[in-house]
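Sequence in, structure out.
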Amino acid sequence: MGRRILIIDGHPDARAERFIHALAQAYGESAEQAGHEIRQIRISELNFPLLRRREDFENGIPPPVIRRCQEAIAWADHLLILFPLWLGSMPAALKAFFEQTLRPGFAFAPARGRGMPKKRLTGKSAHVVVTMGMPALFYRWYFRAHSLKSLARNILGFCGIGPIRQSLIGMIATGDSTARQQWLGKMRTLGGKGQ
């Protein structure tokens, strides 16, 4: 039985030559061919305001584009999240997207008293794919993949999403076509499996 998969293409640059877009496309095409239902959000195509106050995050009304994204997240069984590593973390546009979509009342229920907030996105899994200019091993070893761990624990996990798999694609700036083809093949395999 097919899965409902939401692909979140987190590259803020819409130009087709960005490798993130090719990875998302390879995954999506293979997943559809395997019988999975696919929806896609492209951060580069969204226009929404930044949240600047706690009150807006907690009580503000999400703009229509964000409500549609929340509906897609609620619909999905599995999220594929792809982004390039910028200054050691996800691009600001993707972080702003998560701040807008994963609000109290949607992604979690506010805590009562001293208890923890109730996770409202349980039952969903995720796979995070990150491209970077440095070797992936160096990011894991020297930087301890801190931003990826933060995304998994403090954002996705906080809302109940799990398990969370990850793929790190290093040395992307070298333009090694063989390595790129291998990664596109891996994404097709993952898409076919719905992982």
